[in-house]
Amino acid sequence: MRRWWLRWGTLIALLLSLGVNLGLVAAVAMRRIASRPGLQRLEGEPLPRFRRLADRLGLEGEQRRRFFDLQRQLFEETVRIRMRQAESQREVRRELVSREPDQERIDALLQQAARDFLALEQALAKNIAATRAILSPAQEEEYLRIVSRMQQQPPRRRLPPMRERRFPRERGEIPEEGPPL
């Protein structure tokens, strides 16, 4: 009996700790994102990545302003949806580790997360269609080339320094056969 409680109690404690840590990391990340100077410029000057894209497309005047408005709307909408999606995921984790998980609530939360994912995809599709509508044929061709390249590339993630030191073989620094023992 004692071993059963020890095993399950440890698992539940680990899951709770993971949930709390994820919540803290998300809170810190959202606070940092909200304090970024780039986000405060949404009302005025566009974010640098939007400016670079507009420059690359050769947008000027009213066309450039409309482009920035569309990108700003997409950015604001996706931030709102992603925050709601993260909250749904936290709630699912909380419910899963609760004393008596409510399967109906879990299902409802998972459905909300799925609706949020669909809303993100719809917002992106709507934005791409609206952006294409304001571009000339040459600009549209360049824009589609950029968008298709972005969709093919996985997000760049850099390994933390500790992981880099611990796994040199993954980086090709040690041959597959390894050093002699």
Task: Describe the fold and architecture.
Helix 1 runs antiparallel to helix 4 (61-96) and helix 4 (61-96) runs antiparallel to helix 5. The radius of gyration is 23 Å and the shape is elongated. It has 181 residues and is mostly helical. It starts with a helix and ends in a 15-residue tail after the last helix. The protein has helices at 2-35, 37-40, 48-57, 61-96, 103-134, 137-152, 161-166. Mean pLDDT is 77; it is low at 38-42.
Give the secondary structure arrangement, pairings included:
Layout: H1 2-35, H2 37-40, H3 48-57, H4 61-96, H5 103-134, H6 137-152, H7 161-166
Helix pairs in contact: 1-4, 4-5
Structural features:
single chain; 181 residues; mainly alpha; 76% helix
